Amino acid sequence: MLLRPVIPSLILCGTLMGISSAFAQLSPAPPSQTFNPFGVDNPVLQRARNWARQAAERANGGLSRYRAEESMFGPASQSPFVENGDGSFTFRFLGGPPAAPPTIESIVTVNPDSANPMIRIDYNGPIQAQGATSPSRMAPVDPMPAPEPPNPNTW
Hints:
Layout: H1 3-25, H2 43-59, E1 67-68, E2 81-83, E3 89-96, E4 104-111, E5 118-126
Antiparallel strand pairs: 1-3, 2-3, 3-4, 4-5
Keywords: Signal
Signal peptide: 1-24
Region (Disordered): 126-155
């Protein structure tokens, strides 16, 4: 007779202990080593990366004839770029015919500032020896007129 009032208490206690241990296992992951205030990716760098890739696509005959390397499609922070210190970025990447090994090297400098956008193709040609034309050692090129930045509303 004494066990009847104790049994519901034991069941309730066991249930609560099971739930609390389940929540303890769902502790949040430790914060990453590098803090990114933009969340997923830096939107300014992402815009600059997209403009650089699109400039190379246009210069090489469009998407039916040219594809940039994979790093120009993933997270912008993992693309091959140099921050120039004046708000612009220089991207150096390979590309070529779709589903074929790369044959073209492109070096494109982009200023993604919406007040003064600039896209300049510094080099677009056969793949050069590694380090032969790193962006910091290139001779200045007269900027060509910047194409209009892509308008996502027209796609």
